[in-house]
C-alpha cells in the first residue's frame, strides 16, 4: 500500500515538474543586466541577441534617445504611406529590451500594404484621421478569417504576431498612427514585394500556378516591383 502511495505521489510530482518546465520555457529569460546598448563596431564588445554590446560604463543618454518622430514622413510614393521606425537600428539602447515603435503617415487613401512582422505583435493607435485596418488568420481549419475595423482618432487595434495585416486611410485628409511592437527588431515582410520583387525573382511557373494567373501577368507584376540594385 505504501509503495502504491509513493508511486502515485511521485507521478504527481513529475506531472507538476513537466507543467512547470513547459511554462518556464514559454517565457523569456529575465535580464541579468540593466541594459545592453547595441554596438556597431565589434571591437571590445560582447555578442548578445544578434548584436554586440557596449561596455555599460561607456553608455550615454544618446544611446536611449531618438528625435524627429513628430516630423511627417514622405508619402509621395505609389502606395501613399511612409513608416518611420524607432527600433534598435535607430535607438541602440533598445537592444535586448524587446520593444520598438513606429510612426505611420498616410496620404489621403494611402495604404500600408499587407505585410507581416515575423517577430512581433503590434498595437496601433490612430493619432489623426480614419483608418480601415485588418488582419487575416492562418489557415486554421482551412479558413483564413479576416478581422477588420474602422478606426478613428484615439482608437486602438492589435495585430497578432506573424499575421498578415494592413492599414488603409479611407479619409480625404492625411492620417497618422503610432505603432508599438513587442520586439526590438520586429522585421517586416511586405507580401506583394516579397513575392513579386524578390532577388532573384521567383520562377514564373511557380507564381502562375500559386496565384492561378498566366505568366504574362506574373512578368508584369514583377516589373512593378523591380528596383535597381544598390
TrEMBL record:
Cellular component aspect of the GO annotation: apoplast
Entry keyword annotation includes Cytoplasm: no
Pfam families per the UniProt record, alphabetical = Cupin_1
Q: Any idea which GO molecular function terms this record carries? A: manganese ion binding
Residues in domain Cupin type-1? 67-219
Q: Which residues form the signal peptide?
A: 1-26
Q: Which PROSITE patterns match?
A: GERMIN (PS00725)
InterPro entries assigned to the protein according to its UniProt record, in alphabetical order: Cupin_1, Germin, Germin_Mn-BS, RmlC-like_jellyroll, RmlC_Cupin_sf
* CDD domains in alphabetical order: cupin_OxOx
Decide whether keyword Cell wall biogenesis/degradation is in the record: no
Per UniProt, subcellular location reads as: Secreted, Extracellular space, Apoplast
SMART domains, alphabetized = Cupin_1
* S-S bridge residues: 36-53
- Alphabetic keyword roster: Apoplast, Disulfide bond, Manganese, Metal-binding, Secreted, Signal
| Coiled coil residues, start to end | none
In which residues is oxalate bound? 112, 117, 122
Binding residues for Mn(2+), per the UniProt record? 115, 117, 122, 165
Similarity section: Belongs to the germin family.
Name the record gives this protein: Germin-like protein
Amino acid at each position: 500500500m505504501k509503495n502504491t502511495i509513493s508511486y502515485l505521489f511521485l507521478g504527481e510530482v513529475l506531472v507538476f515538474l513537466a507543467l512547470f518546465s513547459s511554462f518556464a520555457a514559454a517565457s523569456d529569460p529575465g535580464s541579468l543586466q540593466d541594459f545592453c546598448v547595441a554596438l556597431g563596431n565589434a571591437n571590445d564588445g560582447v555578442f548578445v541577441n544578434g548584436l554586440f554590446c557596449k561596455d555599460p560604463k561607456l553608455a550615454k543618454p544618446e544611446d536611449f534617445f531618438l528625435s524627429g518622430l513628430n516630423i511627417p514622413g514622405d508619402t509621395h510614393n505609389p502606395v501613399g504611406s511612409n513608416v518611420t521606425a524607432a527600433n534598435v537600428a535607430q535607438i541602440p539602447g533598445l537592444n535586448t529590451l524587446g520593444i520598438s515603435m513606429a510612426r505611420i503617415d498616410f496620404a489621403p487613401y494611402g495604404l500600408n500594404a499587407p505585410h507581416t512582422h515575423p517577430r512581433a505583435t503590434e498595437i496601433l493607435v490612430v493619432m489623426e484621421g480614419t483608418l480601415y485596418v485588418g488582419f487575416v488568420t492562418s489557415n486554421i481549419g482551412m479558413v483564413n478569417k479576416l478581422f477588420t475595423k474602422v478606426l478613428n482618432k484615439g482608437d486602438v487595434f492589435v495585430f497578432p504576431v506573424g499575421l498578415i495585416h494592413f492599414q488603409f486611410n479611407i479619409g480625404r485628409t492625411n492620417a497618422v498612427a503610432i505603432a508599438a511592437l513587442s520586439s526590438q527588431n520586429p522585421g517586416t515582410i511586405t507580401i506583394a514585394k516579397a513575392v513579386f520583387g524578390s532577388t532573384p525573382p521567383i520562377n514564373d511557373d511557380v507564381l502562375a500556378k500559386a496565384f492561378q494567373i498566366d505568366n504574362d501577368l506574373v512578368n508584369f507584376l514583377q516589373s512593378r516591383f523591380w528596383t535597381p540594385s544598390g
